Amino acid sequence: MSENQPQPLDRFDLYTRIADAMGVADYSTQIIHYTSSETLERILETQSLWFGSTVQMNDTTECDHFINEILAQAPALLSDAGQLLLQRFIEQLRPAIRQETYISSWCEYFDEYPDGRLSMWRGYADEGKGVALVVDSSPLQHSRMTPQKIDFHVYSSKVEYVREGHAAALAHDYLQRISALPEVNAALLNRMNMAVMLLAKAPCVKHNGFDEEAEVRFIYMKGLRRIIGQTLSEETIHTLDPGPNEKAFFVLPLTNYPEYGFDLRIETVLKKVIVGPSADKEARAEATRKLLDHYGLEHVPVDISRIPLR
Fold first, then answer.
1. Per-residue confidence at 268, pLDDT binned at 50, 70, 90?
2. Three-state SS for 308?
3. Mapping DSSP to helix (H, G, I), strand (E, B) and coil, where does residue 233 land?
4. What values do phi and psi take at 16, rounded to 5?
5. Distances (CA, A) of 237 to 73, 221, 251, 281
6. How does DSSP classify residue 241?
7. Domain residue spans in the chain?
8. Longest dimension (CA), the chain
9. CA distance 90 to 86
10. Sequence-separated (6 or more) residues with CB below 8 Å from residue 240
11. Which residues make Cβ contacts (< 8 Å) with residue 179, sequence separation at least 6?
12. Poorest-pLDDT segment among 78-82, 175-179, 277-281
């Protein structure tokens, strides 16, 4: 490569500049996951977290609009050099993102509101008979990202809520902001990295009717990683109920990842378990206490949600 040709930016430097242009921000330092008692037991038994496929989700309309807008506008808003190659690259990403993306959904959690959200208890925790897991999310924040962390195969992001039909406008706004960065247009590799970061935002766009959830999503994009040539050997997809009702899940081992700077062991990240507010909550709290103790989590407190549930 000659001295006059534009050089690709360092990946972490490019990530930081694009993330800042997109307004990527930290979320709460604790997050909460509402689920059933059976799922909690499975998490403890397998020491893993299961991510559901976006194919099986019912709230992806805005995600699709966002992707379509990126596909339509990204090449035109950037410089002409390599435009056809960039267009082909982005087109490859559409089915990969839509069909090979897996999500674990959490919500922001603050100690000032210790009982959780009634709508979440009803919708995701067995009508209030389940539990909610509160974990430390501080190492996952954008402000604590490092060059080693950006290579981890799972990332997290706050959900962006938009009114119906406004996802395309959001995508256009992101494109305008990023295309104004001279670094992005300097080299084709930079533009491809831009496309990856933009499209990685798509699974985090939802209708604003869900905004009370204050959702944070953990995302594994198998298709995107396959296209950009990142390893898949250690990343496991499980299927249940083979046939027309087959469901696919990505399984994330909850272990220490020193090469990436993440310690995701349950005993490290789990801060407390809240028992749902439905009937017999004291008995269910006692059962939850015994379950945690069985797995060596005596240090993790068990609280009871006092939300009035009728």
1. very high
2. coil
3. coil
4. -65, -45
5. 33, 12, 6, 35
6. S
7. 11-304
8. 73
9. 6
10. 246, 247, 249
11. 77, 78, 185
12. 78-82
Which token pair is 32?
A: 């909460």
As given in the structure block, the two tokens for residue 262 are 């993440």
Amino acid at position 204, single letter: C
Q: Please, what sign has the CA dihedral across residues 127, 114, 273, 136?
A: positive
Backbone angles phi and psi of 69, in degrees to 5: -70, -40
Burial state string for 62-77 with b = 16 or more CB within 10 A and e = fewer than 16: bbebbbebbbebbbee
Are 22 and 172 spatial neighbours (Cβ–Cβ below 8 Å)? no
Alpha helices in 54-144 (DSSP H): 61-77, 83-99, 118-124
Contact 142, 27 (CB under 8 A): no
User: CB within 8 A of 154, min separation 6: which ones?
Assistant: 218, 219, 220, 252
- Which residues in 251-277 are b (16+ Cβ under 10 Å) and which e? bbebeebeebebebebeebbbbbbbbb
For the segment 123-144, what is each residue's pLDDT rounded down to a tens digit?
Answer: 999 999 999 999 999 988 888 9
Q: How many CA atoms lie within 13 A of 204 on its CB side?
A: 22
Tell me the CA distances in angstroms from 217 to 155, 252, 263, 306, 307, one per residue in order: 8, 14, 18, 26, 25
3-state SS, residue 174: helix
Three-class DSSP labels, 14-40 = HHHHHHHHCCCCCCCCEEEEEECHHHH
Within 10 A of 237 (CB to CB), how many other CB atoms are there?
A: 15
Give, in order, the Cα–Cα distances in Å from 306 to each of 40, 212, 273.
Answer: 20, 19, 14
pLDDT > 90: percent of the chain = 43
The tens digit of pLDDT for each residue in 214-249 reads 999 999 988 878 877 776 655 678 887 676 777 889
On the question of pLDDT at 51 being above 50, the answer is yes
- Under DSSP, the state recorded for 58 is S
